[in-house]
Specification:
Layout lengths: L5 H28 L4 H13 L5 H11 L6 H13 L14 H35 L5 H9 L8 H15 L19 H37 L3 H8 L4 H38 L5 H10 L3 H29 L9
Helix pairs in contact: 1-4, 1-12, 5-8, 5-10, 5-11, 5-12, 7-8, 7-10, 8-10, 9-10, 10-11, 10-12, 11-12
Length: 336
């Protein structure tokens, strides 16, 4: 039986849900394992910064009751699971009574936009470069130039962000220092706003690309070198087919499937890399949100942001896995 088998689909959905459940449980356990009380820590920090606060213990007790922190741990756990499943993350500690879901709703589109753009460019550009790098007919000078572009693979994304910022924003003033768009444009589906978003997002995108594209290049090169020895490739070459046609039709196409798997798994690394990049550029995405939450000891925001990162990565892996038969008809999710 070809295509997507129902039992396999249900099994993968079950594994996906179990992954989300385990992740939510781990977030709950880790947040409670941190020494001290988050509400007391936050208010004591405020008292240190702003001076003596009257009736601070009354305020702390009120917040504990409000957030259910006086309930038994098992009750807190089931409430946390139920609320997380409904994307109900409560109110922010530091910005009460702003709902955490509202804060994430404002930040998530910016991070998703940045992540989708960098992921697509990394996949397309990296695989094309990798295929050219592995092709035996590529001129030697190009094969010399390509490896020199991979030096940033060993550099943290935060350093590449600082490098690009210091050159193109501070020295040459070609791009803005921070933000997501200019204050002189009105947000909406209009060209001035879109152009401003592109201009402000250029350096953050390149900061992530410099670090991640090299691994895609090396992975594609390795796959094509491996596939070059397969019988179907040698048969195509023996038939006298155009070498470039053989490259993209027989080598690159068959090398893409493992690259797609790597793409899904690398989303987590790309997203985690965005946290520091967004902070450097004061980009109003999830990275900036979680950075401020850590600084403000805002535990509901930290928990919700961590959960969303895990959810995005797990969903990406699930979709890639279920789409395999459409990408490569030779792969089926048939019955056992």
């Amino acid at each position: 039986m070809g295509g997507l088998n129902l039992s396999y689909f249900l099994r993968r959905i079950g594994i996906y849900l179990l992954t989300i459940f385990a992740s939510a449980t781990l977030i709950f356990v880790l947040s409670r394992a941190i020494p001290g009380d988050p509400v007391e820590t936050m208010w004591q920090q405020l008292q240190m910064n702003q001076g003596q606060i009257e009736n601070i213990q009354v305020i702390i007790d009120h917040y504990k009751t409000l957030y259910g922190l006086n309930d038994p741990k098992i009750i807190q756990y089931f409430k946390f699971l139920w609320n997380t499943a409904r994307f109900e993350f409560g109110q922010s500690f530091a910005h009460y009574p702003t709902p955490v879901a509202k804060m994430i709703g404002r930040a998530l589109p910016w991070s998703l936009g940045l992540g989708v753009v960098t992921t697509i460019i990394t996949f397309l550009f990296g695989n094309v470069l990798g295929a050219i790098f592995a092709w035996e007919r590529t001129p030697r000078i190009i094969k010399t130039i390509i490896p020199s572009t991979l030096i940033f693979t060993s550099v943290p994304s935060v350093l590449s962000a600082l490098f690009l910022l210091s050159i193109f924003a501070i020295k040459f003033h070609w791009f803005p220092l921070a933000g997501a768009y200019s204050n002189t444009v009105s947000p909406g589906w209009n060209w001035p706003f879109i152009a401003s978003v592109i201009k402000y997002g250029t350096l953050p995108v390149f900061s992530i690309l410099l670090v991640n594209v090299g691994w895609t290049v090396l992975g594609m090169r390795a796959m094509i070198i491996t596939i070059a020895g397969e019988d179907y490739v040698r048969l195509a070459e023996a038939k006298g087919l155009n070498p470039f046609y053989t490259l993209y039709r027989y080598k690159a196409r068959n090398a893409l499937l493992p690259q797609l798997t790597g793409l899904a798994l690398s989303l987590g690394a790309i997203i985690s890399g965005q946290v520091l990049v967004e902070t450097i550029f004061s980009y109003p995405g999830m990275g900036m949100l979680i950075f401020r939450a850590i600084r403000e000891q805002d535990f509901p925001v930290i928990q919700a942001s961590s959960y969303m990162f895990i959810l995005i990565t797990a969903t990406s892996v699930l979709l890639i896995d279920l789409l395999y038969p459409l990408i490569d008809p030779r792969i089926t999710h048939g019955g056992d």
